[in-house]
Amino acid sequence: MTSKKQLCTSRDGSITYTTDDNFIYAEKEGVTLRLDLFDRHYYKLRPYRGVPILEIDGLRMQLVKDFRTPLDYAKEVSRQLKIGSKKDAVVLDTCMGLGYTAIEASKKRGAKLVMAVEISDAVFTLAKWNPFSEPLWDKTGNILPVRGDISDLIKDFDSELFSYVIHDPPRFSHAPELYSLEFYKELYRVCKNGANIFHYTGSVGRKKGRKIHQEIEKRLRSAGFRKIRYAPRLQGLLFNK
Question: Which domains are present in the chain?
Fold first, then answer.
């Protein structure tokens, strides 16, 4: 049996987190909880160079290629989006996950509010237990976690509300609606003029010659977005309204 080692403690010191390199455990008042669960799919927190990452059915949800940890990826997204360059900015994170990009965005000067939307109850639950996601739940902070489906919620948002958008959806086969022209038109509507947007596209089908980012770019242009450019390291598109 692999021995556990301490990962960290919660901010208030009430929970000790340990890992055996395959799982993360939360220990509180003598009770140990392994941070994984089934909800039609298998969801699991797993340590990666000292930072929890999310796996669903064994697939890693965070991009770590070319990054030391997913926290470094989140920092690069915020840097490329130039979050902090606009005053009193409202930021939309369409697919929160463990919230690392939302947390990083919330630290930037000028970020008035970061709205982080998550559709999965399982992911929401694991994020609440994840020690690295604690800032999401700080009621004195500027992050608003929202449980719901962004493809439905966005229809009720005010027009020209967001100065920045982080759109990091599941792969196309799992959430095709988040790659649709209809969704992009709604996204265009809720963005302010000059808004900065990042859209993770991934590299599905690349070995077979498919260039999914080019397919997405065509739909984004049809929706009205401009200055679209591909960021290889982030495996996604940066663009403006």
Answer: 5-60 (no CATH), 70-240 (3.40.50.150)
